[in-house]
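Annex B. Sample input.
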Amino acid sequence: MFVKGELEKIENKILRGERLSREDGLALFACNELSWLGALADHVRRRISGDTVYYNVNCHVNLTNICAARCKFCAFGRGVEDRGAYAMTPDDAINLVTEASRDPHLTGLHIVSGLHPTWSFEHYLAFVDTLHKKFPALHIKGFTGVEIQHFANISGLGVEEVLLRLKEVGLETIAGGGAEILSDRVRNLLCPKKATAAQWLNVARTAHKLGIKTNASMLYGHIETLAERVDHLLTLRELQDETGGFQTFICFPFLPKNTALEHEIKQTSMWDDLRTIAIARLMLDNFPNVKAYWVMLTVPVAQVALSFGANDIDGTIHRENILHEAGATSPRSLAEDEIIRIIREAGRIPVATGGKL
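Annex B, continued. Sample output.
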């Protein structure tokens, strides 16, 4: 590989295993050499994780779409009286997981939810407790930093106590959503009613201190600037330097359908999706895994992303609701053999994670 000028300097830093700067990140987002970016990210991916690609045999459990936050980028949230609003009972959740358990290889649950305006923290705790007792062999990855902060707000407990109580009833890892863009400017415009950037980071830091692994994400392609994307990545990298508690980074391209931004912003292109995944892999040198989330990217783009730095393709999911409300055109689930085929076609080695990543 050879690119003149500033990009050549960045390439040499990457090949020497040196950390990239903010200025390097900005230069990469200004670069139109997509194949060059992909090749460098693939080089780093190979150095960090070899040819292994992780996947889960998992089931998503979205407890309710009734949400007090009503973020402008969200198509899932509803008011209590809105058409399509729902709130699961514990029996509903058990029935969903029982259905998913027809797959004998099911190993994990992914529980995320709306910020219900009247549910107590005890109500959410009861779901985790019930599911853990009914399905003790399943790894429970649950809730985002936004939800954890919400639980602290409504209970009067500190974040640490909230996390300890969730851990006591079976929560093992924390989902990566809710980070959106870690910029007060963006959050004040799009999601002012939920956790701030500092609060989201505090939840992650506290979880890591307690030995609870978490994931991290970035929702891009809306009103954020490219500089804010870079700063988001650097903020996550800095916290990972401090705690080492992040497992996986996930790129979430914004899906505008049925959101408040639908008529203002177009969906990201495959070019931008692959570029962003590649740059994330290059900037996040201390993250072991970068996920190509096939639900949002589509299966073909996620498969290509395995050559743009990604080493994780998520999982079978069983039944995805949140992103299909925003116009995701991918299937609502994939069979395990289909995921294995996708990974092997890309020349990689599929490895199931037991629901942990």
